[in-house]
Amino acid sequence: MLYRENGQFKTSYVADQQMLPIRQDQVFMIALVVIAFAVVPFVASDYLIRAILVPFLILSLAALGLNLLTGYCGQVSIGHGAFMAVGAYAAYNIATRLPDLNILIVLVLAGLAAALVGMLFGIPSLRIKGLYLAVATLAAQFFFDWVFARVKWFTNYSPSGSVSVPDIALFGLVLNTPQEKYLFVLAIVALFALVAKNLVRGHVGRSWMAIRDMDVAAEVIGIRPMAAKLSAFAISSFYVGVAGALWGFIHLGSWEPLAFSINLSLNLLFMIIIGGLGSILGSFFGAAFIIVLPIVLNQLPAALGIPISTAMVSHLEFMIFGALIVFFLIVEPHGLARLWAIGKEKLRLWPFPH
Amino acid sequence: MNKLMRNWPVIALGVLLAAGLVAPLATGASPAGFYVEVLLGGLMTGVLYSLVALGFVLIFKASGVFNFAQGAMVLFAALAVARMAEVMPWWLAALLAIGIMVVLAWVIERVVLRPLVNQEAIALLMATLGVTYFLDGFGQTVWGSDIYEINLGIAKEPVMVLDGIFQGGILVNKEDVVAAVAAAALVAALALFFQKTPTGRALRAVADDHQAAQSIGIPLNRIWVIVWSVAGVVALVAGVIWGSKLGVQFSISQVALKALPVVILGGFTSVPGAIIGGLIIGVGEKMAEVFLGPVLVKAFDLAGGGIENWFAYMLALLFLLVRPEGLFGEKHIDRV
């Protein structure tokens, strides 16, 4: 009844090819953006913003980056935690060595540093794929874990190896309150999501998908595998690098050498599996899921009055994560994004059966 | 000659590695006795890597599944033995643990593999990632998450050998020798099992060609259960050796990830490759840590060594670039 596209006729190609062709989708998206920007900062508590919304947004951005590579271009990476680390440490070094630089420029430079590293570790993808590539990216993970723990220059010779970032100022305005930080992150994530959405609709994204679906056929129709794969690695790492810089600067504030360990890489992978491979929306769903699940698991036993130790909770969390991943792969390999699409499809017909 | 020319990157890499291996000895940077000790230590770690990698290769050959959960299986088995050995003799605990691993294999086949049959390799890899997380959590829920000891009743004091040849002799752990012998016995038993028994022959048939094996009446599902059980037993042996050496703790699961570069080096489908690859990686990283580490620390002013954390992976990465099928793997490979 409410969600139906009949009567919405397109009279030009531009109208037909717009990002959200159905009017209800447009209204929904605009409402979502307005609520996120104008309502949430005033209603949400500091705890909600600091512990849930900000990490959710940043991890969405990182998952989005990984999804561009794994979901759209079909190249598996277990090293994206390392590329986040590259972004975070690059931003830290740039910001401490050039204190007057605008934070936006710092973020872009951090992204570029991660993109460069990502391309470097993407080179093996020109010869190998699948499982072999996964091991190659694992090399990046362990190598950078070590580099940032051991090479003193990167941590600015701090004795403990942990770093803490300077205040973030945007055009003279220091971002202090959770609300300001939230808005800053939200604006960046919204921009990047928009770019990603259009990237995958356009020429670049289509060449990635062609490579993913069948590399030989893609080559035959004139797509250069090298350009497609390396661009996927570069853009994906750029996203993840920016996300890493935000994670370090806005969410953590100060961090230990192993803040970007292999667990983060695996978590990113889980986000895109649970959210949906090859779906922009799915990256957000997956990130939300991974953020919310531990919190629910922590609160639920207490709410139900079951005494349970924290160690037990973390073990249960592992078990439920693992079981859910297997469950999703078996029951719905396309993840939460697919469930969302099915829901929309059902809604189009509702309340009629056909 | 032509073949030699084509393989020059591999040969160059091999020569480089060999040069790095003998360099500390040749330049007189270390006394011979110490060098041999490091070599033996590396070989010992290598045996453990080999055992974990062996589990990978067995499963990969028989079912095409890249089993990320092998490390978690090692941890789970080790925890089971360690905790049950507190109330019974360790050999009884090990026997019971074998039973548990067989049940586990059966459950994994039923719940995870069977519904995912004919899916892409990547989906299966991710499913085993899920199994990894589940096993890590489950193992620690059931068995606890402290550091436990496995005591096999072997003296831990090092023995001095070869006093006459090297100055000061070489310290050898009796336990290490027992472990190496046990590992060798396991490999020999596996080889016999694969070559001489009907089940082993069926396993090899499945490894060669799934469809052909199925069409002559080999039950794929049962073969998978058997293969995962065998991999579970291999994991158990690796876990017991590891646990008795270093204590049973969560980090085993992570260190076992090193088996990935090992199988890359040795070839995904080769049992001898897994063993030799494990030894190469074990020796290589120990040598790199002991002899290359201080040089790097001095040159780049690092905050400590620890290059053994990534050395194996970088070696595998180099290897992937020059010879993706590994040392002994089949030529047939997904190339772009």
In a few lines, what is going on in this structure?
The complex is a heterodimer of chains A (354) and B (336). Chain A is mainly α and 354 residues long.
Strand order in space, largest sheet of chain B: 1-2
Task: Report the portion of residues of chain A in β strands.
Answer: under 5%
In percent, how helical is the residue content of chain A? Answer: over 70%
The outline of chain A comes out as globular
Calculate Rg of chain A over CA atoms: 21 Å
Q: Helix count of chain A?
A: 14
- Strand element count of chain A: 4
Number of helical segments with 4 or more residues of chain B = 14
How far apart lie the N and C ends of chain A? 13 Å
Uncertain runs of chain A: none
How would you explain this protein's 3D organization?
The complex is a heterodimer of chains A (354) and B (336). By secondary structure, chain A is mostly helical. Chain A is 72% helix and 2% strand. In chain A, the strands form 2 sheets. Chain A has a two-stranded antiparallel ribbon with strand order 1-4. Chain A has a two-stranded antiparallel ribbon with strand order 2-3. In chain A, helix 4 packs parallel to helix 6 (131-150) and helix 8 (203-213) packs across helix 10 (225-252). The mean pLDDT of chain A is 88. Chain B is mainly alpha-helical and 336 residues long. Chain B is 72% helix and 2% strand. Chain B has helices at residues 2-6, 8-26, 32-63, 70-84, 90-113, 121-143, 174-196, 198-208, 210-215, 220-246, 251-255, 259-266, 271-300, 308-322, and strands at residues 158-161, 170-173. Chain B has a two-stranded antiparallel ribbon. In chain B, helix 3 packs across helix 13 (271-300), helix 4 runs parallel beside helix 6 and helix 13 packs across helix 14. The mean pLDDT of chain B is 81.
